[in-house]
Amino acid sequence: MRVLISWIDLMDLKYAEEGRGPVLQALEAIPFDGVILLDNYKNKDRAAQLEVFRGRVGERPNLCYRHFEVENPNEHKTIFKIARQVVDEARAKWREAKLTFHLSPGTPAMMLAWVLLAPSHGAALIESSAEHGVQKVDLPFEIAAAFLPDS
């Protein structure tokens, strides 16, 4: 089983009507059995765009949307805690799943959280762009966040 975990970013919302954006690009390129999509938008501010995006994603088995109230989406500690919580929940639900984290959507703090969590969870990393499509990311270093305290 392959599971994608990704933030939804402004590019996803901006281009949802056209069926474009990093998340939609990944979902079209790779057959995921499960998808967990995270957003941090104030519901009233982006509600219409989120609905268009959700319509484009469509109904899928094992699709989960998670909304988090985040005051500052660039605050590393908060974003890391959220990402780790979601990954732990995914692992509890799908113990043997091959996790994939999407680096393109979101803030630098969101990207860094995935980079730090990937090694300790055996997760693959992907990125996507209009120019290059969806690509696997192989980092030129090894680093993991397993040693970080829960606080």
As laid out across the biggest beta sheet, the strand order is 3-2-1-4-5-6
Structural class: alpha/beta
| Fraction of residues in β-strands | 15-25%
Radius of gyration: 15 Å
* Count of alpha/pi helices: 5
Give the helix proportion (percent range): 25-40%
User: Roughly how many Å apart are the termini?
Assistant: 32 Å
What does this structure look like?
A six-stranded mixed beta sheet has the order 3-2-1-4-5-6. The protein is α/β, with parallel strands linked by helices and 151 residues long. It has one domain. The longest helix has 18 residues, at 76-93. The protein is globular, with a radius of gyration of 15 Å. The chain contains five helices and six strands. Helix 4 packs parallel to helix 5.
Précis, in short:
This protein is an alpha/beta fold and 151 residues long. It has one domain (8-62, 70-134).
